Sequence to fold (360 residues):
Amino acid sequence: MAHSISELSSNSSLLIIYTGGTIGMVEDPETGVLRAFDFSHLQESIPELKRLSFKLTYTQFSPPIDSADMSVDLWYKLAQTIVSNYDNYDGFVVLHGTDTMCFSASALSFLLVGLNKPVIFTGSQLPIGRLRTDGKENLITSLQIAAEKHQSGEAMVPDVCIYFNGCLFRANRTTKSSADQFEAFRSYNYPLLAHVGIDISYHQKNIHRYTKESRPMLESLCLPNNHVTVLKLFPGIREEVVDATLGISGLKGLVLETYGSGNAPTSEWFITRIEEAVKKGLVVVNVTQCASGSVQMMRYDTGARLLKAGVISGYDMTTESALTKLMCLLAKPLSVEEVRRQMEISLCGEMSNSTNKDKD
Fold:
């Protein structure tokens, strides 16, 4: 059930969705452990909310979820919450733990294709009740961004985004880069959507928009977690490790984290295992372990052999984006070839235009 926490006159109405995370936690005085508090106390911690010139309503997951426990089902629940309330609000702010925020936000970008309203994820490194918390600014600025419109009435940022520490990122281009700094997120392969200082400076050319007015059609996401997995390569990886991964019952998709520009061992056993898995219908997507840059499998022989084995280039997608995109595509009634085709094109700004460079 949604609860109103601000009734000020405004042209914008926003829904805050609290899923859990540090921003909504208080310290247990006996144990020192952080625990979720009743979100109705938010206004006590941030009295500035009363000064905002738009209507705020909130709803929360019950019980709140630590982001380490986030799951596919909870992504779908979050997307359902937005879709069912889509016509009632101008924008949505999702409070989420930082550890898996990029996974959740990326998943929603693929679940909510057709979005023309803001969905802004934010959180904090320190609980909202702490004196030096970063949560207050993150939340207030996220609300301002979600409420802002052009003179035409169109949302300023009609996209799934992450706002943190003065930076607005496209969600499916973002990764968590620090466990203990306020600057917790980075977007290595795509520029910021906005910088926040005294003013909020939007970079319009970087903001994704659908070409016509639309609304999200929630796609089914019914895959058990074991249908898609990630395999990170490392020197000395053993056949048993690869076999155990490829042998997962019901596995349909694999995100392969390779070296550099998409390179992998050229051992005959490794290439053979991957090639056989692809022939059996496994969709294998190659992403780089590097923080920035892209996969270009024709640059070196070690990558070219993967391409020949049927591995798809993930180009400059993050692991979080590649994984959630693959999950969403495999949840649809698509052929393996169509899934492969759509993995190589940008559906909602998650990758740069590769122009099939690996096939040139």
User: Anything to note?
Assistant: Residues 96 and 224 are 23 Å apart (CA to CA). The radius of gyration is 21 Å.
